[in-house]
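Q: Sequence in, structure out?
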Amino acid sequence: MRSIWNGAISFGLVSIPIKLVNATENHSIHFRQIHLADGGRIRYRKVCELDEEEVSGGEIGKAYEDADGTMIPITDEDLAQLPLPTAKTIEIVAFVPADEIDPLQMDAAYYLSANGVPAAKPYTLLREALKRSNKVAVAKYALRGRERLGMLRVVDDVIAMHGLLWPDEIRAPEGVAPDSDVTVRDAELDLADALMDTLGEVDMDSLHDDYREAVEELIAAKASGEAVQPSESKDSGGGKVIDLIAALESSVRAAKKSRGEGEGEAESEEDMADVHPIKQKTQQKSAPQKSTPKSTGTKKSTASTAKKTTQKKTTSKSTSSAASSKGTSSANSAKKQTSSGSRSTTKKKTAAPRKRASA
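A: Exactly. Output:
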């Protein structure tokens, strides 16, 4: 990577030669201005207001505009004579915990590369000291004509520097918070917590610029002469007053569905949401149908009565048959008793003559 600044880190009495390299890059798609009539490119020319003539870069200098409009010329030699100790030095002024740095102060990011073999040892010393202390270094440096504030921290095995805004460059958030007092219920907080848990964590490397990809596809389609189909814009619901509870519940369901969690629950809740109460007219129309269960009940009662009658007849028949059988058995027993009685009488008559004979 190409360095944009060469200097040294001042770490007490230790000096570490370094090169400053951009840690970020801009992937935004830039457009040119053109003349719609013929497609010619529109260019800006630097013209002097006094003589209305175009001026080249070599004839252009710097000046400070005073309150009354007076221009005060400032040359590079004037700036070079100023006592600026950080002109070529990143001067470390303190080591503080990382959470003491307000993220609002964060600006551009750079990598600090050791410049040459002799710089490797002190560079590694500073890197390991930052790792072990779990602190960041606050430093001053000069870049592009002004002194700046920076924060040094370790990224992998490299020392990175974040440009910081000066504390007086951070504006106070006055008038930004809602004017009215708003009370948040515990149920709303619980749903917000559930949504946060459902969304969970994300791999930062997986995030990308969808809009830039869409612009690139648009440019490629137009370059090849293809027809561009307008995409459907999704209504984000911005500026609408909504039911916060319903919106949070829908967000939780959508997050679970996108992650493949709770699909059955989401479907059941969606099915329940489609159920509507039956209208009164429909109930009046369906009222005559209530007689059908009554007729069915009558049929059932008739059938049960018939069954009971049949059971009674069967019982009477079984009773009569049982009585007849009892009668038959009693008659048979009477006959048996009669026959047995006649037999005993015959025996008695037979036994009497034998007694006479013996006499």
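Helices lie at 76-80, 120-133, 186-199, 210-223, 244-258, 263-273, 280-285, 291-358.
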